[in-house]
Amino acid sequence: MRESRASGLRAASWQRRARRIASLLAASALIAEAASAATLDFEAAAPGSDAAVLGVPGVAIGGGLVMSESLIQMTLGFPATGTWNTTPGGANGVLNTLGAALGIDFDVAILSLSADVLALPDEAGDPGAVLLLAFAGSLLVASDASDPGAVGDSGLPEATLQVAAPGITRVVLCAPSAIAPDGCADPGVPTTFWADQIQFEPIPEPATAALLGLGIAALTARRRSR
Fold first, then answer.
1. Backbone angles phi, psi at 191, to 5 degrees
2. CATH no. for residue 135?
3. Which residues constitute the domain of residue 25?
4. What is the DSSP string of the chain?
5. Per-10-residue mean pLDDT, the chain, length 226
6. pLDDT, tens digit, 9 for 90 and up, residues 85-118
7. What is the pLDDT of residue 54?
8. What's the confidence (pLDDT) of residue 122?
């Protein structure tokens, strides 16, 4: 009888421990998912609004207006409807109409960023290009540039630009300078590109990393005790 009762207590103890481990791992997974890549697709903003008022926590955008394909077609004359936007079912993106560059600042450093871009013709009417610069503080840590020859279904150069480095706090999209490597063109050059589907990966907060580690340690301990 005592052995049977002790066995039952051990089984109940293991069940409680297993439930705690499962809960911990579930919480870890949820937090890890929350810390995964985030997307700026501009679909929730009104066409013609300043991209700075998107209100994304921890992210500040400057230098561009949110535009829809139809508004671009109406104001700039490009046949944009159905060809510029890369968000499934979407129509909005951002044009750098408020400055030569589009700057995005992050309150918490990120690990990587990608952006779908479309380059408008340059001052000479030739195919343009877009440059993506990533900074950790004031230090340039990564860059990528589009190929003027990579023409998409819009009839204009299109590309997905990507940068990755630890501690990115600011990224800049601009037309590349003809004379300075990894430099932006003359600030006086207006409206040179469209950007859409800007995705970035935040660095997990210490609490997230600790919880994930705790979950793994608990699971390991459970396996060793078997």
1. 35, 80
2. 2.60.120
3. 2-35+206-224
4. -HHHHHHHHHHHHHHHHHHHHHHHHHHHHHHHHHTS-EEE--TTSPTTSBGGGG--TTEEEES-EEEEHHHHHHHH----TTTS--STT--EEEE-TTSSEEEEEEEEEEEEEEEEEEEPP-TTSS----EEEEEETTEEEEEEE--TT-B-TTSSBEEEEEEEEEEEEEEEEEPBPSSSTT-B--TT----EEEEEEEEEEPPPHHHHHHHHHHHHHHHHHHHT-
5. 54 57 42 59 93 86 95 94 92 92 94 96 88 96 96 96 96 89 76 93 61 51 52
6. 999 889 999 999 888 899 999 999 999 999 999 9
7. 80
8. 83
Say how far apart CA 135 and CA 186 lie, in whole Å: 20
Tokens of 33: 């998912």
On whether the CB atoms of residues 96 and 185 are closer than 8 A, the answer is no
* Domain match, 26 and 44 both: no
